[in-house]
Amino acid sequence: MAAARSRRVAARTEYWPSFVDVLTNLLLVFVFLLSIFALVQFLLTREVSSRDEVLLRLNAQIAELTELLALERAGQSETTDNLANLAASLSAAESERDRLRGLLDSQSDAALNAGDRVAQLTEDLKAESQVSQRALAQVELLNQQISALRRQIAALEVALDASEDRDKESQTKIADLGRRLNVALAQRVQELSRYRSDFFGRLREILGDRPDIRIVGDRFVFQSEVFFQTGSEEIGAEGVAELDKLAAAIVELSQEIPEDIPWVLRIDGHTDKRPITSTTGRFQSNWDLSAGRAISVVRHLIDEGIPPERLVAAGFGEFQPIEEGDTEEAYAKNRRIELKLTER
């Protein structure tokens, strides 16, 4: 009888350390889970902060992990509640055990009933242990998902680095092409400048040393009286003769300029600042008159064989004078037709 009582007491005393171990392991798992989650959140925040495109793709995965963690927390909370209930039950059992110890000598039947109660509590603890094992399995699954997420981040890092390297290489190529293009453009400008000088030299030889025809900067300037009557855009006989000489020089020069140089001959019409006195009433302003004269010159040059795509007509009215003042000499210099060999 005494040996049986000793065995029952030993069985009861071994129950409490097992429960403490389970509770301690469960708390350690919970703390470890929270630590892992905090570490993952910190790493994700630091690694993904500068990559907006990657962040868009990872937000969904992080949200899924957050939901899993919320579910895990709910499960942990439920487990904690169950443990609390079991602890309360265990406390009650211990109270019952203490009470039964005082009655063991005289109430063996009551002791047996208490043993049954302890056995029931032991079964409950086993069931709770199974719940804890399921929780550990869920934690392991979460760890696996976090590892997969890290591998994805690493792959994206590699892809981004490769993309940045390609961008740097492209920028280098673009800069090199830009320098080569600038050199090519500079060469074209130099070539066009050389042909412009030849063009001016030929015009000077053809037209002679006339006071009403001069070179101003990069333009050949004709006084309007060479071509037109006052207030008219019709080219006179003298002007036709001069334009024929000019057209012949342009046709000859166009055969020498390479096809890949986008040159044009710009014809600009200018007037003085006095109001128009057209006898026909065709022009409402000096601007209209200057544009009409430039167009007349262009049409005649086209008739003489110059391709239309190489000609440009522009009218400036009185708004681009080359000499200020209200004298007849200033007025005469400002009434002009200018020719400029330039790029398209």
Automatic annotation (TrEMBL):
Record key words, sorted: Coiled coil, Membrane, Transmembrane, Transmembrane helix
Q: Which residues form a coiled coil?
A: 132-166
Domain OmpA-like per the UniProt entry, residue ranges: 216-344
Q: Which domain of life is it from?
A: Bacteria
The UniProt entry, under InterPro entries, shows: Bact_OuterMem_StrucFunc, OmpA-like, OmpA-like_sf
Extract the Gene3D superfamilies matched here.
1.10.287.1490, OmpA-like domain (3.30.1330.60)
| TM annotation in the entry | 22-44
Keyword rRNA-binding assigned: no
Which protein is depicted?
Answer: Chemotaxis protein MotB
Q: Which organism is it from?
A: Bauldia litoralis
Q: What is the lineage of its organism?
A: Bacteria, Pseudomonadati, Pseudomonadota, Alphaproteobacteria, Hyphomicrobiales
